[in-house]
Amino acid sequence: MTGPLLEAALVDGPLESLVCVPVLLPLLAAGVKLAIGGRLRQLQSLISLVTLGISLAVSVVLMIAADTNGPLVTELGGWPSPIGICLVADRLSTLVLVVSSAVTFCVMVYSVVSAYDEQEHDAPMAIFHPAFLVMVAGVADAFLSGDLFNLYVAFELLLSGSYVLLTFGGTESRIRAGATYTLMALASSMLFLIALAITYGATGTLSMAQLAERFATLPEQVKVLVELTLLLAFAIKAAIFPMSAWLPDSYPTAPAPATAVFAGLLTKVGVYSIIRLEALLFPGGPVSTLLMWVALATMLAGVLGAVAQTDLKRMLSFTLVSHIGYMVFGVALSTVAGLAGAIFYVVHHITVQTSLFLVTGMVERRTGTTSVTRLGGLMKASPLIAVLFFIPAMNLSGIPPMSGFLGKLMLVQAGLAQGGWLPVTLVAAGLVTSLLTLYAVAKTWGKAFWRGPRADRVGRVVESEEHTGEDPTVTTTTLPAALPVSVAALVGLGLSFTVLAGPLSALAHRAAGELMAREPYITAVLGRQP
């Protein structure tokens, strides 16, 4: 893959050449780090941080250029579209690429500062950083892909890197969770391949820009078949109900850095693919009504599961499923306002969910558990951790004027403007989901952080509970002084979306308008009007 990318960098212009950097650079760095092996761990960490820092800077440049000048296209191997595969940086892809780059950089800082790889003495240390960078490259490739087959390749990159991270350490629970995750990923990949075969057989191309033209001439039954097959494949990856049962059993077992980036970012790759699919290839199709019902079920099933949990990780995993429903709702509306709300909510949710899982990792490292029934008094024992959890938790719940509230408000306004009993029902379900999310996180906060009588559970054995059969010991360890800094930076990024809500909302609307128009994307890739 790196060969065509390097050739593209030499053939295209300066800005166009940068499009391949977020994919190429992590892959090259992963190869270098594999060559280094387990030696020179400080150099391993430095390479990772420099690589992700450069990717973040390039992503910002691409976002500004795409917003100012329109989509940027890099043709891999010098083959012109639609014959060859291309990478396309438009407003949507660059916006989510910037946020994902910032999140992965903060997660890597967290990993390095906490000396994460030193905690897993039985694990092959030399593979954590390369696997992480391969996963980052897969995420970037998925966001920038202008070809359905290259999107499939990006998902396989994600699978290879994320499986290693999920099973890192080789414990029984992680291997079991990794097996479940891999089976679901393989099922999704098979569906994706079937959809690709049908699509190519019917249209003779897999270029998204060319498909946007040719799908209009296909029989309606073929279009619906391709759309449903692709949606099912992406829905599994996005953990949309009822294809979401695997997530709460898989993500909580992984180490904190891996869980954080999985929860915050990987499911959004599936959501991003659905946005691109529905806006570019099947605008205003008959599947929109089905998507609304799916969004409704995802919201309610996820949040009801969250309310019932007594473990921090599982509670957050169920809220993750629930809030995917908001994004699907925005896509299902098939309007500029709905898509803008979905895009805004994707950006918000990536940062907030990642922050919460990183803080949960700090809780687990500090106390040795994430069980709410065994925690208590963390507000007194570790006030900084308590604050770092409280802020994104309230943001997730949609407390005004935070970005979670603003994203929900955009979706509510779009749903009411659409009219009809089903969109209004979705609006009501969204409000109920928000209230239940607040209840779930408030209950968790009260038991784990605020509950006073159990504050003495932190750090020693409570003799009165020794008869319960549950291990009453909650051990504490000292956290590295710099560890909360990376989490605080991510929490601050989430809060900045409130301060910058105006410009971010405007950019989301421009991205949605560009998606719905379709002509800018098609013209940039094919060099002609549709």
UniProtKB/TrEMBL annotation:
Keywords tagged on the record: Cell membrane, Membrane, Transmembrane, Transmembrane helix
Transmembrane segments annotated in the record for this chain: 15-34, 46-66, 92-113, 125-143, 149-169, 181-202, 222-242, 254-275, 287-308, 320-347, 381-399, 420-442, 481-508
Subcellular location: Cell membrane; Membrane
Principal place of residence: membrane
Domain NADH:quinone oxidoreductase/Mrp antiporter transmembrane stretches: 145-436
Pfam family, one: Proton_antipo_M
Keyword Transit peptide set for record: no
InterPro entries: CPA3_Na-H_Antiporter_D, NADH_UbQ_OxRdtase, ND/Mrp_TM
UniProt keyword Membrane present: yes
Membrane topology, from the record: Multi-pass membrane protein
Family: Belongs to the CPA3 antiporters (TC 2.A.63) subunit D family.
NCBIfam families: PRK12665.1
Protein name listed in UniProt: Na+/H+ antiporter subunit D
